[in-house]
Amino acid sequence: LHVSQHSFPTRRSSDLDTYAEFKEVINSTYNSKGNIVIPSFAVERTQEIIFTLGQLFKEGAVPRIPVYIDSPLAINATEIFNNNPDCFNQEMQTLMSSGINPLDFPNLHYVKTTEESKSLNEKAKGSIIISASGMCTAGRIKYHLQNNLYKPASSVLFVGYQAKGTVGRSLVEGAKKVHLFGEEIAVSAEIRVLGAVS
Question: How many helices (H) and strands (E) does the chain have?
Answer without folding.
Answer: 7, 8
